[in-house]
Write a structure and sequence with these properties.
The protein has 87 residues and is mainly alpha-helical. 43% of the residues lie in helices and 5% in strands.
């Protein structure tokens, strides 16, 4: 987790037009996943792994957002399939 830099905060404001992100601190969480297959070249194994990892990411991100929301924080994440806010 890290504080969002001001330049990046403006980009996030464009993604979440209904939120005033300039009024309060914004913390970003970065999640990474290790892969078995090379994600740069398509193969059936790579596509299956990518789908499984995407599903695992969405489930984890939803759980994190729900926990933060339950603690009275605003939280959302970028859907890796669409590049748009998930919640």
């Amino acid at each position: 987790a890290f504080d969002c830099p001001q330049l990046l905060k403006k980009d996030f404001a464009d993604l979440f037009p209904g939120r005033d992100l300039s009024a309060s601190p914004l913390t970003l969480l970065t999640l990474t996943q290790r892969t078995e297959n090379d994600m740069m070249a398509w193969s059936p194994a790579m596509e299956a792994e990518r789908e499984a990892l995407t599903q695992a990411f969405v489930e984890a991100a939803r759980d994190i957002c729900n926990a933060l929301t339950d603690a009275h924080y605003w939280a959302d994440f970028i859907d890796p399939s669409s590049g748009r806010p998930y919640m």
